[in-house]
Amino acid sequence: MSSPTALAFGLQRIALENGLTQAELFEYVFDDTVLALSFVLNIALAGITILGIAYLGRNLTDPRAKMIAISLMLISVVSISSYSGLASGLTLSVIEMPSGHPAEGTMTAGEDGVLTMWGRYLTWTFSTPFILIALGMIAGSNWTKILTTVAFTIAMCVTGLAAALTTSSLVMRWWWFVISSIFFLVIVYVILVDWTAEAEATGTGDLFNTLKLLTVVGWFGYPILWALGVEGFAILDVAITSWGYSVLDIITKYIVTFVAMFYVIKEPDAITGGAEYGSSRPGFAPADD
Q: Membrane-spanning residues where (predicted)?
């Protein structure tokens, strides 16, 4: 887990060790209409969002407004790719739960274990940084603070993935969950305290408060669902857990994207950066694309 390469090899090993083939996992998903729709709906919405941003942003001229729009688009670019992986069975595995877990002994498609949608963690690892980049820029924050939140969100998602994949010990599963939650609270603090104050000073307070509410309230739903779902206390089944995550993704990704985009396309003074925005040399204005 110490590097993206190690993470990729670790996930590949888990997939290869899984007793079910991708074809069998694909069949299992689409035999459960409720589960399949939780993936397919997000593929469709991510595609619509990408096209919507491309259309709405076609006349943007300010480089800072364009950068915010691109960040918003990349959220859905990651999502459509990741949900396609889930729907195809590529990023699914059946994992045996450790001793003492409520789902210990569960069978899935004839295999010991529960269906783990580890591809969702890939979605969050690569999409939430773009959410934070867009939010930070709208708030008028500096890049040091924005990149700090990006680092914490990657750490949050990777440790959340560790919690989902740990089978050696029930205590260690929950320990990873606690670490991930601590990283999450650091991000929430920056959004609710630092960026809220900066947005008021920048002049984007009204918009930011709306985005903050949708994002933070939605994000609190993820650890709650993890705890209630098959990976935690197993109160909710796989399909319901998946739908819970999908609904939260709809709120915190697509709805947030369009709320922000409808504001950005007006190119208000609080959003625009001027011709020299993004230039590394004083007095040099980057060419408009």
A: 33-56, 68-95, 121-139, 146-168, 174-192, 213-236, 242-265
- Tell me how far apart the alpha carbons of residues 82 and 46 are, in angstroms, rounded to a whole number: 10
| Tens digit of pLDDT at every position of the chain (289 positions) | 445 555 554 554 554 455 789 999 999 999 999 999 999 999 999 999 999 999 999 999 999 999 999 999 999 999 999 999 999 999 999 999 999 999 998 888 888 899 999 999 999 999 999 999 999 999 999 999 999 999 999 999 999 999 999 999 999 999 999 999 999 999 999 999 999 999 999 999 999 999 999 999 999 999 999 999 999 999 999 999 999 999 999 999 999 999 999 999 999 999 988 766 665 555 555 555 4
Contact predicate 277/63, CB 8 Å: yes
In angstroms, the CA 152 to CA 133 distance is 13
Contacts 24+ apart (CB under 8 A), 98-104: 98/166, 98/167, 98/168, 98/169, 98/170, 98/173, 99/170, 100/170, 101/170, 101/173, 101/234, 102/233, 102/234, 102/235, 103/230, 103/234
For residue 53, give the nearest of 270, 278, 259 by alpha carbon: 259
18, 21, 37: which is closest to 29 by C-alpha? 37
DSSP state of 192: I
| pTM (predicted TM-score) | 0.88
